[in-house]
Design brief:
4-stranded antiparallel sheet, 6 helices, 6 strands
């Protein structure tokens, strides 16, 4: 991710009143275990984010392994396995097998990163997928605003 974006995130998330939005940085071992369990490889921008912030708020809740307390306890592994099971009968099941769930929208729809690093939302009521951003970095750039 661009240094300027990482600095904006650090400045915002390390404010005293934002502590519930910041998780515990992910370790290399946690990342490796999750990649093995999910049979995927995390995109480098996502790894940089979770290695720096853990599960944290960046315009949307980005789940990792140890999330900020206001994000909930669901890990990227929990969310991915849950939605793989929930969507196993839908056409997008194949896409979920090679992707991972990093977030949820307000309607319970998972936001995923695919093998190519593109970010999609999967609509649970229709089984359709919609491209949100061409990369995790672009997703954060589009959604993150300091307040």
């Amino acid at each position: 991710m661009k240094d300027a974006l990482m600095e904006r995130l650090k400045t915002f998330l390390h404010q005293k009143d934002k502590s519930t939005l910041l998780g515990i940085p992910a370790s290399r071992e946690e990342i490796a275990q999750a990649e093995r369990r999910l049979n995927i490889q995390f995109h480098e921008d996502y790894v940089q984010f979770i290695s720096t912030f853990g599960g944290a708020y960046a315009g949307l809740a980005v789940h990792a392994f140890s999330n900020g307390s206001s994000l909930g306890n669901e890990t990227v592994v929990d969310l991915t396995l849950e939605f793989r099971e929930q969507f196993k009968e839908l056409p997008l099941a194949e896409a979920l097998e090679t992707s991972y769930v990093i977030s949820m929208d307000g309607s319970g729809d998972p936001i995923i990163i695919d093998r190519a690093g593109k970010v999609f939302i999967c609509y649970h009521d229709t089984g359709e997928m919609k491209l949100l951003a061409d990369s995790f970095e672009l997703l954060i750039e589009d959604h993150f605003f300091e307040w």
